[in-house]
Amino acid sequence: MLRSCAMRLRTLGAKLARRPGAARRLFSSEKVIRKDYALPNPSWTKDLRLLFDQFMKKCEDGSWKRLPSYRQNPTQALHEFQARFVDSKLKKEEQMSKAQQFTRSFEEGLGFEYVMFYNKVEKRMVCLFQGGLHLQGVPGFVHGGAIATVIDITTGMCAFAEGVAMTANLNIDYKKPIPLLSVVVANSQLQKIEGRKLFISCAIQSIDEKTLYTEASVSQPTTEGRPDKNSGQCPMEALFIKLDPDKPLT
Amino acid sequence: MLRSCAMRLRTLGAKLARRPGAARRLFSSEKVIRKDYALPNPSWTKDLRLLFDQFMKKCEDGSWKRLPSYRQNPTQALHEFQARFVDSKLKKEEQMSKAQQFTRSFEEGLGFEYVMFYNKVEKRMVCLFQGGLHLQGVPGFVHGGAIATVIDITTGMCAFAEGVAMTANLNIDYKKPIPLLSVVVANSQLQKIEGRKLFISCAIQSIDEKTLYTEASVSQPTTEGRPDKNSGQCPMEALFIKLDPDKPLT
Known about the structure:
Two copies of one chain form a homodimer. By secondary structure, chain A is an alpha+beta fold. Chain A folds into two domains: 1-30; 35-70 and 101-242, Hotdog Thioesterase (Thiol Ester Dehydrase, Chain A). Chain A is built from five helices and eight strands. The first copy, chain A, has helices at 2-12, 46-59, 76-85, 88-93, 144-160, and strands at residues 64-67, 112-119, 124-131, 165-174, 183-194, 197-206, 212-215, 236-242. Chain A is globular. At the A-B interface, helix 1, helix 3, helix 5 and strand 4 of A face helix 1, helix 3, helix 5 and strand 4 of B. Chains A, B: It is an enzyme of class 3 (hydrolase).
């Protein structure tokens, strides 16, 4: 499975590795003229604003960093990815210029309202998330696919801190449904690196950490024994493959 | 894990069981005045229209059935679920009436364009899916969270044919990225029922079945040995918990 996946990723991302550190620019102060959606707007509840303020304070000493977020992908590295990755037929149609980042394609407050903070030393990514009314699954609650999306972006950005990567495996246990318009915290952490394989955990909890909405089962035989620091439980984990053709997996 | 999940679901869905067969109305001819989104629209590509026509022909002898799809949940059973499930505070705010089904909350052609067909005898659900430009993950390709969503709705509806159920576990292997605007087929099948536990597989392939975009790893120890009929591989599997308080799991 990994062999097959790695082969494709190596081919697709071959040219990217010529720009080492490109992915890290996601976390740099590159000049941006587009709208940054990872900032408070009128749809944010008091809970989300309070949490945002708490994390912004943590950023003051440089231990944490807020990640900006756009409708189009912000980094040159990703644009290069597109240039080499996207089917030429699609590019000719010039439709791709109208494409928008899935999680930012909703009107304010109706979709994914979130902001992510990264701690470089702890290799930990936190996503503060408020699910809008257009993310409904069973009546009154956030859709399981939307929850999977929050997990994917949080663990994905945690992986990106290590280099350009794509999700290879996602194993999610849904423990309790998340009410629409509530605020939850996705806590993601890099657990292990094996060659190009990144193993990242994630758990979604209530603000007071008393309710665990989403947690883990360990699906990769190589990843056993990584209990969550606080609960002793193994949280949801995602496997990412780092794009680095100098060290092929196969 | 299952014990905890089942306890919550039993509590939440307690009253639902008083209306046996309610979930099956999803597949009935109940009178509906809302717009059905699971029908061709101008954004559908030729590929999606051709596939739709093929499956509509299969419906003529009654072996397959097209599932309608709405922005609000169509069944009385789900409305009752909301009445008992949603936090009273949220209900007071009357915001929930503005909630929309996640997968139908996009403008025509920009989000999830799909239609599902169900084969009752084979216990198999097929979803024909075209990913719009607002579902972008890495440039030019459908977001991993959007793919997880397609898997969740396809396996979820397959589960609903057996009774009201919620996703408990989702284990996804991403093998190859899906280009935006391309048409793929999600093929889902009920594999096993153990009490209230439903085990459902799903694989996403290209129309010609030559490309496997998403497949499985078996994550539940009770579900080994269910190879895919065609490929011999074990496709992605989802675990659902059926809401049936007469037979508690705990």
